[in-house]
Design brief:
The chain is an alpha+beta fold. Helix content is 46%, strand content 14%. The protein is built from 21 helices and 12 strands. Strands 1, 2, 3, 4, 5, 6, 7, 8, 9, 10, 11 and 12 form a 12-stranded mixed β-sheet that branches. Strand 1 (271-274) and strand 2 form a beta hairpin. The longest helix is centred in the middle third of the chain and has 25 residues, at 207-231.
Length: 616
């Protein structure tokens, strides 16, 4: 008979050792492998650029791909850049990145052993290779929708990176440079080197060969990746099909009154997923790897979970980062309950109840005086459904909206429709301001300002667009908003959604007596940022119409995703455009400043609202 004393751990493997033998959790493998490959790539780039680092022990530990012969520096740089590109795909669980890594790692291990006799390099490559094989089921993400613009973006980014890295390569051999070349000569040498030609900078000994091969490798890598992206099969980003649009319109006809942002789901640059029953849908757009939905799901609230589940499955299938911007409190509760995501309050939507609106009273004195002054100056207004406008009037409105836009890029996503008066949009509303002037040669006739509203159910409308002629009197936007509210009863409208005010509650509480130092500091920061982003001016403009405030939220997965989501939202809204710079933009006559500004969730307020308040 045998016995064991309590506490005797003999014969048992310690828990720490068991964890090591068991290996990392499957869900963490893509991140671990991607980080390891990224570190190796950075070290390879450093080894190619800095001669001393190339022969250090640190680089010997991280060698994975072959680096040998007289082209060591060029190969190290090329391998490092390729690994950095590969690391991003591995972290996003892309199947194609997994296939490339499975091919490259064994080749690198064989080369390390054959040419460098590096046991450490072989071990690192073998460990990464084993992790990839064991957890291949974690790498199932499908390719992103792609188009030819990816090739242009790759060319611009790779060229900029190659020139920056090339300047470093040119200057890491200060003791071997002949003379004292200027910055212009250094840049010229880099550009020539990217195309495989010798530049004006001269070196002693064999350094010129090392620099030349390194620059040539960067240029070849830029060319090859751009050519590959340009000629690979194109899978354009999803667009709203006619069939999808028809289904969404049916859902909006039944449930469109629940959310003022519902009609914006009909933007044609969005894709859609439906619930299994077809009674609910979520529209989205993919921007920089973020699957960005806006507003609440469309349709029956009871069917929302099914549509949300489909949305999350689509995000997982492509390894996109899921996010929702501008959802209501009810929508945020459903999203967080069904997905485990978190929510952050972004600001408040200004909603005016028509039956409660009046220009009477002291609080409305400024608006009342401004409107009366403009009317005395000869301005008249019209508020109609789009279907009531003639084709000539529609063309004038479209032309004016385009000409009065102050930016080259059309802005708006979550609270913008992106079109005026197209087929199927006859139930939208147009408010226009007019004044006949002698000698006026405007191609838009007497048209001076435009407001465009989209339906919000059967008894509401939501402001989508504001544009005005810069030559018109200040206060045109107040005039048209008041005219729209006064005309609403005749149009069967009981509620009007005006604008979205970012961080409205922080601004309102921070200016009250008794506000704490943290709240005052936060408000002061928002006021400072309002110099570039119209945060405070939007809040003040909205507040003039005495609205009720409805909070809007952003739904996200982790706090680490917030910077990425914020950048994606700015891209979607048109604040950030990844395009080639206009080299001679300063020579072009400036366009009139746009009269519609947008926050991260498309604030529908004129860009010069604050100046108009001061002018009044």
């Amino acid at each position: 008979m045998s016995s064991r004393i309590d506490g005797d751990k003999s014969g048992q493997v310690p828990s720490g050792v068991r964890r090591i033998l068991r290996g990392p959790r499957p869900e963490s493998v893509p991140g671990l492998v991607g980080t390891a490959v990224m570190i190796v790539g950075l070290l390879d780039v450093a080894a190619g650029v800095f001669p001393r680092f190339r022969h250090s022990r640190i680089h010997a530990v991280a060698e994975v791909l072959p680096v040998f012969g007289p082209f060591a520096a060029a190969l190290a740089i090329s391998a490092g850049v390729l690994l950095l590109l590969l690391a991003h795909g591995l972290k996003r669980r892309k199947r194609r990145a997994w296939r490339a890594a499975v091919v490259l790692l064994p080749a690198g291990a064989v080369a390390q052993f054959a040419y460098r006799h590096s046991i450490i390099g072989v071990v690192i490559a073998a460990v990464l290779f084993a992790l990839l094989l064991r957890h291949q089921s974690e790498f199932k993400a499908l390719p992103d929708p792609r188009s030819r613009w990816k090739a242009l973006a790759n060319f611009v980014l790779m060229s900029a990176g190659s020139i920056g890295l090339g300047l470093v390569i040119v200057n890491v051999h200060p003791g071997r440079v002949v003379g004292n070349p200027s910055l212009y000569e250094q840049i010229t040498h880099v550009v020539y080197g990217l195309f495989g030609f010798e530049g004006p900078v001269e070196y002693t000994h064999s350094v010129s060969w090392t620099v030349g091969y390194s620059l040539g490798a960067l240029g070849m890598l830029t060319a090859l990746t751009t050519i590959y992206l340009a000629f690979r099969p194109e899978h354009p980003a999803a667009r709203l099909t006619a069939d999808d649009e028809g289904k969404l319109r049916e859902l909006l006809a039944k449930h469109g009154g629940r959310d003022s942002l519902g009609h914006f789901a009909l933007r044609r640059d969005k894709a859609v997923v439906f619930s299994p029953s077809g009674k609910a849908a979520v529209t989205y757009r993919v921007v920089s790897g973020v699957m960005l939905a806006s507003g609440d799901p469309i349709g029956d609230v009871e069917a929302w979970p099914g549509a949300i589940e489909r949305f999350m499955e689509e995000a997982k299938a492509h390894s996109w980062t899921p996010a929702v911007v501008g959802c209501s409190e009810t929508g945020g509760e459903v999203w967080t309950r069904e997905t485990g995501l978190d929510a952050l309050e972004l600001g408040d939507e200004a909603i005016v109840d028509v039956k409660d609106f009046s220009l009477a009273g002291r609080p409305m004195r400024n608006v009342r005086q401004m409107v009366k002054r403009i009317e005395r100056n000869g301005y008249t207004t019209k508020v109609r459904r789009v279907s009531e406008l003639t084709e000539k009037e529609l063309e004038q409105v479209r032309g004016a909206a385009e000409a009065w836009r102050g930016t080259d890029t059309e802005r708006g996503f979550s609270m913008a429709l992106g079109r005026v008066g197209e087929e199927g949009d006859g139930d939208c509303f147009i408010a226009t301001a007019h004044r006949v002037e002698e000698g006026d040669t405007s191609p838009f006739g007497d048209l001076k300002a435009v407001l465009h509203f989209v339906p919000w159910g059967k008894d509401g409308m939501s402001l989508e667009l504001m544009r005005r002629d810069r030559a018109a009197d200040p206060g045109m936007n107040e005039l048209l908003i008041v005219a729209s509210l006064e005309a609403s009863p005749a149009l069967g409208i009981e509620k009007v959604s005006l604008n979205f005010a970012m961080f409205r509650s922080a601004l309102a509480r921070g200016e009250k007596i008794g506000a704490g130092p943290v709240l005052r500091l936060w408000r002061n920061l928002l006021v400072f940022l309002s110099r570039w982003f119209q945060i405070e001016s939007l809040y003040k403009f909205n507040a003039k119409f005495r609205p009720r405030w409805e909070p809007r939220f952003m739904v996200y997965r982790t706090h680490r995703d917030l910077p990425r989501i914020g950048f994606a939202v700015m891209q979607a809204e048109g604040f950030v455009t990844l395009a080639l710079p206009r080299l001679f933009a300063s020579r072009r006559p400036p366009k009139p400043e746009r009269t519609c500004a947008h926050t991260h969730t498309h604030a529908k307020v004129p860009a010069q609202a604050e100046r108009e308040v001061q002018a009044a």
